Amino acid sequence: MKAAGYYKVKRIIINTLIHLFLITIALSCIFPLSWMISSSLKTQETVFKDMSLVPKELHFENYILAWKEGGFGRYFLNSIFYTLSVVIGIIIVASMAAYAFSRLRFPGRNLLFFMFMAAMMIPIPGSFVALYVLLNKLHLRNTPFGYILCMINVGLSMSIFLLKTFFDKLPRELEDAARIDGCSKFGIWWQIALPLSRPVLAVVVVFNALNVWNEYVLALIIFDNKNLMPLQRALMMFQGEFMTNYPLLMAGLTITALPIIIVYLFMQKYIVKGATSGALFG
Amino acid sequence: MSIRVRQSWRSLGLFLVSLTLVFIAYGCSPSSKKAKTTISVWHWMTDRDSVFQELAKRYEGLTGTRVSFELYAPSDTYSQKVRAAAQGANLPDLFGILGEKRDFSSFIKAGYILELTPYMEREEFKWKKSLFAKALGVNEFTEGNSYGIKPGIYGVPIDIITIQMLYNKDLFKQLGLNPDKPPLTFAEFLKIGEKIKAAGLQGLVSGWGEIWMIDCLANNYAFNIMGKDKVLATIKGEVPYTDPDWVKVLSLFKEMRDSGVLASGLVTMVNKNAEQLFANNKAAFAFNGSWCVNVYKGMNPGLAYAVMLPPAASRDYPMSIWGGAGSSFLVNARSKNKEAAVEFLKWLTSRDQQAYLSEATMNLPANKECLNKLPKILSQFAQAMELSTHPNTWDISESPQVIEAFDKGIQSIIIGEKTPQQIAQEVQRIKERQLSSLDHEIKIRPGKLYFYPSGNAHLCYFLSYTFYLGIPPRPLRMGRDTAY
Predict the structure, then answer these.
(1) For a Cys-Cys bond, which of B145, B359, B407, B432 suits B211, CB 3.0-4.6 Å?
(2) Domain for residue B20, yes or no?
(3) Are A220 and B77 inside 8 Å of each other by CB?
(4) Quick check: A129 and B83 CB within 8 A?
C-alpha cells in the first residue's frame, strides 16, 4: 500500500516535470507568434511603448492597410502558383529519380547519386551569379518558368534523398507481385511505390512548400518585373533602410504565415507518420 | 491492371500538358504598352518608393518620358542583383551601388558607369554648384586616386546623411543641466557621465554592435586629434597605429567607459535597440545618423531632443563627422537611354523635387538650395555638412581586416578586456601583415568586374557551364576584397 502510494507520487512528479518542460517549449514556440499577432494590432508608437501581449486598442485596420499597401493580392496568387508548380515538379522528378536510384541498376548510379547529394552542400547564395548567367543564356531570366526550374533544382537533392531512403526499405515482394500481374516499371512506380510513400511525400511537400513560400532572394535576383514576384516581396515594402513599419509588417507576416500553417495542420498526421516510419532517416 | 495503368498514364499526360499550357500562358502574357522612352531605375529605398513613383508620374506628365522605378529590397539582396545583372549585361538605365569605393571603381573599370563631369560642368557648372560638394565627393575620383580611375564625377547624390550626437532635453533637465547647452569638450562630456551614473540613467546609446558605427566615432576623434593628413598617412602605412595619437584615440573609449557616460550593453547593441532606448527617454545621448529623425518621429513624436557635434577632445584640429551622399544614382554607360537618364537625374536633383523628396521622406536633400525649407532638427543635421568627411572621399581605403581589428579592439577596451596600448599593437601587427601581403596579391586586370564570393559561386559557375551547357568556363576572376 505504501509502495503503491510512493509510485503514484513518483509518477505524478515525473508527469508534472515532463508537462512543465513541454509547456515551456510550447510557450517558447507560441510566444513569437502571439507577439507577431499582438504587434499587428498596435500602432507604430505603441509597438515600442506598450509591451503587453493584449493591446489596449486593437487596430484591425492594419490588416487592410498591409494588404493594400503591400499589394498582397497579386503576390499571393504568384506564390500559390510557384509553390504548387515547384512542389508538383519536385514530387514527379524526385520520386522517379529516387525510385530509379533505389531499384534500377545502371552504370554510374552511385556516382550520380553522390553528385546529387553533393549539391545539398552548396549554399543557394553561392550559386546566384551562376544561376543568373545560366538563365540569361537560356532566355529564361525574368520568366516564371525559369524561377520554377531553379526552385525545383533547389529542392531535388533533399527530396531524392528522403524518397530513396524510403524506397530502399520497401519490400521487394510487393513489386514482384505487381510484376507478375503485368505491371510495367512505370506502373510499379505509379501504382505501388508512390501510393505507399504518402507519409514521406507529405514531408517532401511540407518542406518544399515552406521553402518556396518563404523564398525571396532568388526571385528578386531573377525577376525584374515586380508583377512576377512572390509574396515575400510584399513584406519587404514595410522594411525601410532605416525604419520598419512594425504593425504593417506583423500584419503582413500573419497573412503570409496563415496558408502555410493551414497546410501544416492538414498534413500533420502524415508528417508525424513520415517521421516515425523513418522518412527522416539520416 | 493494364487499363488502370493506361488511365494513369493518360491522366499524368493530361496534367503535364495542362501545366505546360499554364506556363506558356503565364510566361507569354503580353507586356504592357511602353511609352516612347522608358527610363528604368533600380533602387533599394523602400521608404522612398512611393515618393519616387509620384515623382515619376510628374516627370512623365512634364516630358512624356516614362520612368519606371523598381524596388529591390533589402539592400544586401539588391547589391547581389546589381552584380548579377552586370554579369549578364542587364543593368538598368539608372542604378545605385552599395559598398565601398573600390566596388564602385570596379564597375567603372568594367565600363558600366557613365562619367557625368561634362554634364555637371554645362551652363557654368550650374548642376554641380547646386549640390553639396561633400556629397558629390563620394561619387568623385580625383587626380592620382589609388583606384586608377580617370578623374571625374560618376554619380549623383539624391540625398545626404550626417552622423552626429543627439541629446535628450528632458533628461538633461532631470540631471540639472541646461537643455540648450550641450557639452562642447570631451571633459564636459565625461563630467555628465558622472551625473548620469549617479542618477542611475543610461548614457550614450548607439549601434555599436554593428561595428561600423564605432569606426565612425573613432575616426571623428582621429581627425580631431591628429588631423586628416596623419589619418591618411596611417592608411598608407607611413604612420603606425602605435603612434601616441592613435593610442589617445583608443584611450578616449576607455575614459568614456570609466566615466559612466556609455550605456550598459553598448558593445552588442544594434542601432534599432539604441533608437528605441533614446526615443523612449531612457538614454541621455545617442550617436546616430540624420535618418533617425524619421525613426524617432515614428517611435515617439513627442521626443524632445537636439543635435550636437561629438564633444572635441583636442583643439589642434576641427571636429569632423561622417557624412556625405546618402544615396546616389549612377547612369549605365551602355544604356541607349543614357542622355534621357541624365536629364531625369538633373530634374530629380533640382530644387523643387529635392524639397518635395525631403519633406515627404524626412531625409536631408542633396541640393543645398532648398535647405531653408527644412524642419529645425533636420537643418541642425545639415548645418554640419561642411565638417563632414567619409572614407569614400579619401581616394585610399583601409583594408577590411585592419578596420575590423580596430573596431573590435575598441569593443574589447569598452568591456575592459584589453588596454588601448594592446589594441594599438594588435592593429599595427595586422596592418604590417597587410602591407607585406600587398606584394603577393593577384593583380586585378582592368576592364573586368570582380566578384569575391565564398568560392561556391565559382564552383557553381564552373559546374553549370561544364555539366549543363558543355561550354568551358571563362577564367575565374579573383581579387582581394571579400565584399565582392
Answers:
(1) B407
(2) no
(3) yes
(4) yes
